Every structure is written in C-alpha cells, then in structure tokens.
Amino acid sequence: MIFGFPIISVAIWLPIIFGVLVLSTGDDKNAQMARILALVGSVLGFLVTIPLYTGFVADTSEMQFVEMHDWISRFSIHYHLGVDGISVLFILLTAFFTPLVVLAGWQVIEKRVAQYMGAFLIMSGIMIGVFAALDAVLFYVFWEAMLIPMFLIIGIWGGQNRVYAAVKFFLYTLLGSLLMLVALIYLYNVSGGSFSILDFHQVAIPMEAQILIFIAFFFAFAVKVPMFPVHTWLPDAHVEAPTGGSVVLAAIMLKVGAYGFLRFSMPIVPDASHYLSGVMIALSLIAVVYIGLVALMQSDMKKLVAYSSISHMGFVTLGFFIFNAYGMEGALLQMISHGFVSGALFLCIGVLYDRMHSRKIADYGGVANTMPVFAAFFMLFAMANSGLPGTSGFVGEFMVILGAVKANFWYAFAAATTLIFGAAYTLWMYKRVIFGAVANPHVAELTDLNMREKLIFAILAITVLGMGLYPLPFSEIMHVSVNDLLVHVARSKLPL
Amino acid sequence: MDLMTNWMSAGAEIFLLVMVCAILIADLLIKQSGRLVTYMLAQLTLLGCSLITVGTHENGVVYAFHNMFVDDLMSDVLKLLTYLAMSMMLVYSRQYLTVRGLFTGEFIVLALFAMLGMMVMISANHFLTLYLGLELLSLSLYAMVALQRDSAIATEAAMKYFILGALASGLLLYGMSMLYGATGSLELGVVSNAIQYGVADKNLLVFGLVFVVSGLAFKLGVVPFHMWVPDVYHGAPTAMTMLIGSAPKLAAFAFATRILVEGLQPLVQHWSGMLIILAVASMAIGNITAIAQTNLKRMFAYSTIAHMGFMLLGLLSGGIEGYGSAMFYAVVYVLMSLGAFGMIMLLSRVGFEADTLNDFKGLNQRSPWLAFMMLLLMFSMAGVPPTVGFYAKFSVLNAVVQAGHIWLAVAAVLFSLIGAFYYLRIVKLMYFDAPESHEPIAVGQDSALLISVNGLAVLLLGLLPGALMSVCAVSVQQSLLLH
Questions:
Q1: Shortest CA distance to A173 belongs to which of A219, A110, A142?
Q2: Do the beta carbons of residue B425 and residue B375 sit within 8 Å?
Q3: Packing angle between helix A31-47 and helix A7-23, nearest 10 degrees?
Q4: Which terminus of chain A faces fewer neighbouring Cβ atoms within 10 Å, N or C?
C-alpha cells in the first residue's frame, strides 16, 4: 500500500463498478455510450495497476500492497489482498488485456453491447481478485464468480454450438472447484481455524491427507490449465466463444489454473507434490507431444490455436514440477508470453472471422495479397507461437528446457519436440491461410486492418518483441519469490 | 410461574389468534372489490406480531404454560423471519390470486392460521405442543391447496397431501407414544434427561425414534418419504406452492431441532446414522430427478428435496457449527425459494401459468432486469459465489468436515454439481434462447420492487454474509446448548 491507498482494491473494484455502469446504459440504443464507458473503465483499470509494478520491491518474497480487513468474523475470513513476485505480473496482464478486448469487440459486437462490455469489465476485476486474494475463501469466491460472466459470454455471443460449450465449460470447472472447496475447508480445520493461504503454507499435514488434498486441488487447477485428460472443454469453449472471450480464456483464465498450482498445491502439500511429480510431468509431456500432434490435424484455426494453448500450458506445468529455478521461472515467463501470443493469435483469427465468417483453414488462401499489413502482424505472432528466438515465446520455452535437462535428459528431449511441432502446426496453418494464390472471391474482397485493429496489434507486437529481446524486467521481479517458493517446497511438511 | 410471564412469552401467538378471528369476521362484511382491506389488515397483523416478538424478547430461555412452551432467542429469530416470509408471500401472490379469483378472505385467514401453527411449532417444548402446531399448519395447508375447487389437479394434490400427511402424523404420534412409554414424559427436557440418566428401555426408545424420524422425514419431504412433494408443488396454485415451500421450512427446522436435539440428544448416535441415509438419498434422488423435469414447479419440488437433504447434513453434524449452519441454510433457502416462486407468478398472466421451462426462454430479451434477478436466484440455489447460496453450502460443509465426515462432504458437493446443471439450464433458457412469446410482462409495482429486493438480497448477503451467519449461530447456541 502506498500512503495508505488501497491499490489492489481499486484495481479489482474499479472495473467492476464501471462494468455495472456500462450495464446500466441499458439496451442497444445507447451502444456507443456503453462502448466509450467500457473503454474508459478498462484503460483506467490498467492505469491503476501500474503502481503495482513501479512500486514493487523485487528483493523480497513478502506479500506487498497488503490489505486486510475482517470480512466474515465467524469463520475468521478476511478480506485479505496482496501480491508477490509471482502474482503481480498476472494482475498487470489481466488489466492490460481488458482494453484490448473492449477494442476488439468495438464494431463486431452489435447485439446487447452493454451486456457484452459489462461482462468483460466485471470479469476483469474478478480475475484480478483471484490473483490478489490471500484468503482462501476470498480466493474461492473470485474463482467461482469468474465462471458466471464467462458462461454468459460464451453462451450469448458465441458460435453455433455455443450452448453446449458454455454448459460444458461451466460444469467442468465447477466440478474441480467444489472438490477444492472441501480441501480448503479441511485445511481450515487442521490449521486451527484460519483461512489465510499463508497460514495454510505452514501447516503440517500427514501424507495420506496431503495426497488427497493434492488430488482435490489437481481437479480444480488441472481443469483450468487445462492438463491432458481434462482438457476437452477447452477446444469447445474456445471455438464457440466470441473473439474477446477466446482472448480472455487463453490469455488469462488458463493462467489462473497454473497460478493455483504455485499458490496452493506446491506450498501447501509439498510432499505430495514431490511424490506425484512423476505423474504431473508425464501428463505435461503428453500434453506437449500428443496435443501438439492433435493441433497439427485441425482444420479450424481457432481449434488449432486452442490445442496449441494446451500444448504450451503443458510446458508450464512441466516447468513447475521439475522443481528448479530455471523451470519455474521459465514456466512463469512462458505463461506471460503465452498470454500475449495466444491472445494476439485469437485476435488475428477474429479479424479474419469478422470479415469472412469462417474459421476453416480451407476457406482461406492468399490473404497476404489483400491484407499485407495483417499478414505481417500475423507472421510475427505465429513465429512467437512457435518459439522463435527474439520473440517472447522463446525465452520461457528455452528456460524450461534448460531446467528439464537438469532434471532428466529425456524430459527435455520430449519437451523440445514442441519446438518442432509448434513450428509445424503454426507455420503450416500460416502458409495455408496467408500465402499462395487468392483462393476465392471472398478473399479477394478482404480489406486490410483499420486503425483500431492496427492499434491493438501494434501494442501486442511491441510487447511480444520487447519481452523477447529484453525479458529482464519480467524475470527480475519474480526472481526472489520463485527462489523462496522453491526453498519452501523443498522442506517436508509431514508432522514429526 | 405467574400468569403474566405465560402471556408475555406467547404474546405474538395470542395477538395473531385474536387478529385472525377479527379478520375472519371483518372479511364477512367486505365485498370482493374491497378485499384489499383484508390484505392490509393481514400485513398490519404481521407487523404487529413482529413488534410484539421484539418487544417481549427476554434474554435467556423462558418456559411457559407448565413447560409446554418455550421462548428463546432461536424462536424469536425464526418467528421474525417467518413473519417476513409470510409478508413477502402475500405481496407476491396478491396480483396472481386476484386475476384467478382466489384472492379471498379464506386464503388470507388460512395463511395466517398456518403461520400460527408454525409459530407454535417453533416455540414448542413438549411433544404435544409440537404436534398441535404441526397439525394446525398442515390442516390449513391442505385446505389452501384445495382452495381452487374447480381444478382437478389441485384437488388431487390436496387429497394426496392430506392422506400422506395424515399417515405421517400417525407415524409421528405412534413414535411419540413409544417415547412416552419408555420415559414417562412428553416434555422435551424431561425425556432427554430420562434417556440420559434413567433406565429407559433402549429397544423401545430406538423403536420410537425410528417412527419419529420417519414422521419428521415425511414432513420435511426427504427421500424415501418425498413422493407427495412433487405432486403437491405441481398441483397447487403457485401462491400456495410458494407458501408451502417457504416459511414452513423454518418451522420444520425448528421442529427437527427441538425433537432431535432438545429431546433426543442422548440418542444422537442412532438418529445421526438415519439422517445420513436420508440426506444422501435426498440429495441423490432430488438432484438427479430434477434434471428430468420440464415443469418448473416439479423441478423446484425435487430441488427442495435435495436442499432439505443438504440441511439435514448440518443437523447431523451437531454442535453450534452444525445446528447454526442448518438454520442458516433453512433461512437462505426460504429467501431463494420465495424469489423463485415469485418469479413464476410474476411471469404468469390471466389464464396462463409460466411454470414450464419453455416459459423462461429468452427472458433476457423481454426483461433484462427480471432475467438478472432470476440469474442471481438460480446461481444462489446452485451454490455459486458471490451469492448467499454458496455460504449456506459452505457453512454446512464446514460443519460436516468438522464432524469428521469428509466423504459425506465430497458426496454432497458431487450431488450439488449435478444440481448445478438444472439451475444452469434455466439461465441458459433465459439468456441463450430466443423467446417463444413476446407478450409484454405486466408486473405490479409492489411485486416488481419485491423481486428486486429479493434478488439483490441474495447478492448482498452473498457479499456480506457474516451478520446473518452470526445471528443463526448465536441463537442456536443460546437456545440449544445451554440446557
């Protein structure tokens, strides 16, 4: 907190309040007003998070900007917020994407504009809450509340099969969350009546209980990440969601699951995490290799990027569960980079979809002839997705592979195949869509990016390149927190 | 025990009885067009009752009428909430009943008599008082379900309700007589002491307990004694369904805790096992069967069964946490159920009941505000934060885990997940589908305001649930555990 100013609370509630204001503009007669209000709210929402970065003290792993008030005193539940080196970047990432999503939906969304914009603003505040909550119940409330706007966004503005996708998304994630709730309540009882996550980190827990808790958390977080056997909701949700929904899903919501592993599973049940790390690594590698191959076969661009997300997130969980600094830092950088890159790719596909109303790769070809500027941007993001050095995608993948080599050569070997598969499916898609002769009259009529779209892509391109060429501002801020987490996780928490 | 204390502790009941009789007579002189006067009188009576309940509140536990009657914090809190629920029920149903020609003096008088029954149940300290209250409530409800004489389905529902209700009363009385035979008393505290310290025949006690629990399960409508619930909920006019599905749940909670906790606490190891079976079966059958329903009232009937099962989980966990969470659950459930049935009545018109799933299609396009209120209510019933339904489930689960039944908690959340599906389906219909009819929704100002308050209360209590939780815990603590 700087001068007693509750920055995190403002970052959470400002977008939510603006979201409610946007909703109150009512029906589509006031659509323009809703759009402007949403843009103002989301830009302000981003600006207020900047002090979190500039004021952040990078040489401690203590929670910073802490706010703590009594909330439900009967269960000693507190309104307890704070950030450390792990969470602060995700808050910025979330706030950063909200204005882009608002801009991306500016003209495309024509029906129920106020509800669309309002839902995104409210969701943005809730997601910041997930990253900042230090009380387990507060975390859970934000975590679940996140589902409601996303459910509506997919279901109302999504594609043809949107209802199926929305319900599948909701029930899948709810299953995991409910098991986590039981685990949290159990922890409350063994920790002597505290819901503070930091207190959970210190409680001694016997091995059997640790394993059960790990499994409960696994369901909650693995579904969100999503990890290999529970990933099937993601392609459906991504494909059916409107562009903005896909962007938020890929860029932020998937990170929430991975963040959960770092904030809950590993520090609360370190022994079970070590014990089960083999399984986690195996699942991660299956995601990297198998899902990478699945992505190769997709005929739908959005589905392809969705599978690519699962594969990239496999990298992230691999990085976590090899338990070394390279792996974990690399995984965190990969999460941030993947946020930018996958968000950008979904926006690219959105641009094409807005003009052609098709996501099929086969319907395109030769887009470079009619949309040269777009093709250039798309090229950059496709390269970043396949991990080209100089783009943000490279840094994280490289560090995770370095970490994996330290742990076991064959982990690294399997993980490194992603550099091939990733390049293969991304660039092959790029080639089929962008290059070649103009495939059909629709492509010939395409118009290149307008100013609004150029602005969005320029911002993202600068970030992707910047992070690729000079990742230090990202990595230095998380360094101490990651090291302390690793030290903590290395200590056994079994009762003596 | 002097006369004044007796009268003071039952002040609200006596006032209500006098007022009901007065309203009954006054209503004879009122023409149908002036029925609003009766309605206003009823609302004033509810206000008067609450003033008396607050005014005669005493710290601690006061016994009256030779220990037949008890006035404690729990009874006062539950009664105040009952008045509130009844008052909301009257507001919601006024327009609905008026257009159907059911807005008669009998309806109001019967509703108030039913409430008197609930109040007696809430304050009972004796098996006979409990039974008296229960019968007064049940008889009024039977009559109310049958009030729509020319509706075959309502008459059928009333008949079923009556026969099964009578059977349940028989079971209950039979069980009570066993307990009386074993302990020599019908007063809750004496029965409890006799079991604890006396030489009561264990077999006889457990035999009686089985009948009492069965009777209780009938009245609560939990599996396998639930068959009347869907038929009655479906057949009765929605206003009566709302009455059956709301305030009596508070009385049922009081009824269950008075019998099981105050009277039969020493047999806890026996009845908690029975409640586990009832609770799990209710959550399973209730949630799974609800998925197959196309009629909204039937669906809510099965959802009630599941919710009552969840509430029993709190009861069987014991302790302040357990009883407090069960009470909180009951209160929250009543709030949500009022809103849900209120919404059905708001969307109904002359000659048209909005009680099938299809009637909610596209509500977001017809009325975004009503759709949003229903969304809050449905997410609350599913137990999704930030609505209050989450905290109801949360506090019960906490009690269950604290009592060491972790697997029961896991089962409970898995069944809630199944339950989430059909609540979600309503949200889906309202937001994702196109409306089937474009009839304008004509909503009275009073009920429109009330549904907004109701929906927002679900959200606000979800953001700040602490106060209500504490009230429930404190009243349970003062009333049940200090004996």
A1: A219
A2: no
A3: 180
A4: C
Q: Which pLDDT score, from 0 to 100, does residue A55 have?
A: 85
Mean pLDDT of the B394-422 span: 91
pLDDT value for A4:
67
> Does residue B279 contact residue B312 with C-beta atoms inside 8 Å?
yes
Residue with tokens 């409640």: B275
State the Cα–Cα distance between residues A381 and A475, nearest whole angstrom: 21
- Partner A, chain B 421-460, Cβ-Cβ below 8 Å: 421, 424-425, 427-428, 431-432
Compute the nearest-CA separation of B369 from chain A (Å).
10
**Dihedral, CA of residue B293, residue A152, residue A149 and residue A340, to nearest 10:** 140
Length of chain A: 496
Instruction: Tell me which chain B residues have a C-beta less than 8 angstroms from the C-beta of A115.
Output: 368
ipTM of the complex: 0.90
Could you read off the pLDDT of B290-345 as tens digits, one per residue?
999 989 999 999 999 999 999 999 999 988 889 999 999 999 999 999 999 999 98
Q: Which of residues 307-366 of B touch A (CB under 8 A)?
A: 364
Give the three-state DSSP class for B462. Answer: helix
Distances (CA, A) of A341 to A163, A313, A352, B447: 27, 13, 17, 50
Does the structure show a pLDDT above 90 at B198?
A: no
The pTM of this model reads 0.92
Is the per-residue pLDDT at B483 higher than 50? no
Nearest to B182 by CA among B171, B172, B193, B169: B193
Q: What is the pLDDT of residues A134-145, one digit of tens each?
A: 999 999 999 999
Cβ partners under 8 Å of residue B34, min gap 6:
none
Closest CA to B90 of B65, B54, B115: B115
Residues 6 or more apart whose Cβ sits within 8 Å of residue B354? B296, B344, B347, B348, B360
Identify the helix (H) or strand (E) that includes residue A394: helix A392-407
Please state the rounded mean pLDDT for residues B251-271: 90
**CA separation for the pair B134, A100 (Å, rounded):** 61
Sequence letter at residue B156 = E
Search chain B and give the residue with CA nearest A161. B432
Angle A162-190/A233-240 helices, nearest 10 degrees?
Answer: 130
The CA distance from B146 to B142, in Å, is: 6
Indicate the residue of A140, A148, A178 with minimum beta-carbon distance to B417: A178
For position A1, what pLDDT does the model report? 46
